[in-house]
Every structure is written in C-alpha cells, then in structure tokens.
Design brief:
By secondary structure, the protein is of the alpha+beta class. The protein has 7 helices and 6 strands. About 35% of the residues lie in helices and about 20% in strands. The relative contact order is 0.15.
Amino acid sequence: MVHRDRRRCCRGGSNAQVRPVPVALVHGGASDDFDWDGRREMEVQIFGTKSCNETKKALRFFKERRIKTHFIDLKERAASAGELRRFAQKFGAAALLDREGKRFRDRGLHVAHLAEPRILPLLEEDPLLLVTPLVRGGNNLTLGWNEAQWKEWTQ
C-alpha cells in the first residue's frame, strides 16, 4: 500500500506533483529503510580502522552510491567472535590474518607458524591483525578492497 503525498517539485511552481511514499514513512516507520520505490535500501557493515587507506576507500565507495554504512573501528571495538567465524567460514581463518601488516611483524608472528585453530582466538584478542576492510552486506561478505564485488551488490 502506498499513500500519496502532495509535495511540490519546484518552489513557487503551481503544478503539484504526486509522489508515492512508502507506507512505513507515513505511519512512523524508519525513513532510512526504504527508497522512493518502496524497496528496502542496502546497508553495509564495514570493519576497519580510521587510519587504513583501504577502509577509507571502502567507506567512500559506499558513500558515493548513497548506501548506508555502519562502520566499526577495530581500534575502539573488536569484531565479535560470531562475525569473525562468519568471515572465516567463507575465506578461511588464515586469509583473515594480515601477514603483510606492521602489527603482525611487531608481534613477531612473521617467524612463527600459526596453526589454523590458533588464528581466530588471536584475531579476537588483537583485531588489528585483521585484513581490512571486512565488508558485510546482508549475506554477502568481502575481505579487503573488492570494488568489483561491491559493484555487483549495488546493481
């Protein structure tokens, strides 16, 4: 069901255009949940740090496309164990570990062999060892900068 809302398209114009408004907007629903066609808008969750260039680029990518983002700064709050498991199921725990990062070398992990079962507890303890950005849009997941995949999501 769509209500009609009489809003003028142009200031001072005498021709009032009728635009459909999703029912959720009229009846006190969240205005961010629907676009003007009445479809649900996409939301993404981005895990990263404010200082990470790849994370900044990911935030900018979604902002340019007017997609609502929920940013989790890993310096302030770690990703939950459930979120890490979800990414590990798709990519493998070893893929989540940023072996090229400064934090990895500073902790001396570059000389140690990390068994797969030890990686997730290590990432829970120190989330700055994660490859960033981790992006989740619904059931879609990506690891690192993945513009091609994100473009598929937004179409």
